[in-house]
Write a structure and sequence with these properties.
Layout: H1 3-10, H2 14-25, H3 29-36, E1 47-50, H4 60-78, H5 80-86, E2 88-92, E3 96-97, E4 102-103, H6 104-118, E5 122-124, H7 131-140, E6 145-149, E7 158-165, H8 175-185, H9 204-219, H10 223-226, E8 236-240, H11 246-257, E9 263-264, H12 266-269, H13 291-297, E10 303-309, E11 316-321, E12 327-329, H14 332-350, E13 359-364, H15 370-378, E14 381-385, H16 389-405, E15 415-421, E16 425-428, H17 437-459, H18 475-481, H19 485-497, E17 499-502, E18 505-508, H20 512-523, E19 531-532, E20 542-549, E21 555-556, E22 573-578, E23 584-589, E24 595-604, H21 607-626, H22 628-631
Parallel strand pairs: 2-5, 2-6, 8-9, 8-10, 13-14, 13-15
Antiparallel strand pairs: 1-7, 3-4, 6-7, 10-11, 11-12, 15-16, 17-24, 18-24, 19-20, 20-21, 20-22, 22-23, 23-24
Helix pairs in contact: 1-2, 4-5, 4-6, 4-8, 9-11, 11-17, 14-19
Amino acid sequence: MDAAAFWIANDPNPLTRAAIETHRQNNATSTLETLLGSRLSFGTAGVRGPMGPGTSRMNDLTVIQATQGLCLHLEQTLGVEEAHARGVVVGHDHRALASMNLSSATFAKYAARVLLRRGFRVVLLDGIVATPIVAYGVRANNHAAGIMVTASHNPKQDNGYKVYWGNGAQIVPPHDKGIADGINAALAPWHTYDPEKATVWAGSNALYEAYFQAITTQLCRRRQLNLGPPGTSHVGIVFTAMHGVGHSWCERAFQSFGLPPYYGVQPQLQPDPTFPTVEFPNPEEGAGALQLSFEEAARHTDAHIVLANDPDADRLAVAELQPNGEWRVFKGNEIGTLLASWELKWHKESNGGAVDPNAIMLASTVSSKMLGAMGAKEGFQFEDTLTGFKWMGTRASVLEEEDRRTNKSPQDSMKMLFAYEEAIGFCIGNIVRDKDGVSAAAVFAEMAHHFYKERAAINGTSGGGSTKEEPEESSPKRRKQELSPIAAELLRLNETYGFFSQNNGYFFYKDTSVVDAIFARLRNNGEYMKSIGSGNDDDLTVVVKDIRDLTGEGYDSSRPDKKPILPTSGAHMLTYTFETFNAVVTLRTSGTEPKLKYYVEVVGETQQVSKERASQVAASVIKYMLEPEKNGLTRKPQ
């Protein structure tokens, strides 16, 4: 049976089935090759791609196949009895392609029906949920796995299927291969599944309340101050859900923390699968993505903070209005540093002013090294992991299991304080083993109120601005010289731990062979380049000190055995430590998009010096290592 015939025989969706049938009847060979010539690959990020008919798209049949593959892998790994008894929690966002009757809700229902017909206990969560709720639910109810149907911040035509393992973290190898093998062994549906027979779990609301109780009990540190008398808000906060699921969850989190309500960006507040106001619903894109938030803030005299979730509410972007009238959009590393310091403050307060030697923070290896500098000075443990929260969540699980296996007392056990990645993903405490934009929004808001209240106490005002007594004619000059409270706190942290500046970015590529060729040239059969640059006076020449290659068998020139500590994989990832400015540069491919990413970090005597040096190094990396013009790399999707 050819691919088209197989599809027509097995696709339960009449619209996507008819599309393939029409292309076949019209002998549209090229179109059929595009739709059926390849299969969406299942990796550690699950599977993600455009919705539509065929094996290369997200649709009802590919979701059925993915779930059957997951069933087989769970049964083979845990045993049928345990896998079925512990079951799987399933959640979904709001994405949909109406023209093909494809949606996250239907995908989740199909997944639930496949699991149930196979004998698994199924917890299908009620309504649209934020991604961290599924991650929380896995551990809260000791499920064997979790499924979240979402494409996160991808364009509107995309959807995805993310899998959590029983430890509450996204899957890591070899589970991705195990599920992929299961999919290939079960391409034909085992049964005729009726998604309308899927029923939501009656305990959904209780799980949601347990989540809010957990984040409030463990992460809210000044609730009585938050609850103060009406009119005592120290700063107005604007929130956008970017047309995603975040509003209802963040609104509830603010209420639970006792925080004043935020000003919602109404055009973007409710879930809308058409994402009408943004081409790319990703707050990580910076000021352009937050324009409507800035416009909303302008309507409120006290609105100095913008918080933004991505569409599935697992990321958080932050901006602050500065005294010169400009908005400062904080980078992921800056938000991570602020939250880490905030968590450290309250950890020390609960520990008699000291740092527990078993306290630990994690960051991805492409994130700033500032957290490591903070740990070295303050006395907490710090580890970096491979890129992606799957590795940080798994590392937290491993540390917890080591404590359990060695029968460590609670006093001597690991205390997970914080983990983050520079792509605006933050995990506070040990409640969720994934990035959580809901709890991060509430914690950041509470922190903002704290620092704005401090500023007000210093200035003798009701907010974070200049003093009432200051002569009117001098206030513009003063405001230009003064940072707003969050930016001022970040400056204090830089002065304490170092001025770390990053210059990160990415290029889109069209063909993976181009990226393979770029990395092959950089590896040069093991003869890695020792410097980059032309040697001209007007061109920075960067001298290589050490190289770490986490692809294939791996290589690390800084270690005696030349073997890296971090795990290796088949994905491209090179890290250079340069003698020039002690810069650290990482080049890697994205796991979910056709992007070649670069990360540059430099530490300098001042912010200006480190920023200029990072810019210089980044320019050399782009010009001599990535060669975008020669390799057809572009800043926008191809």
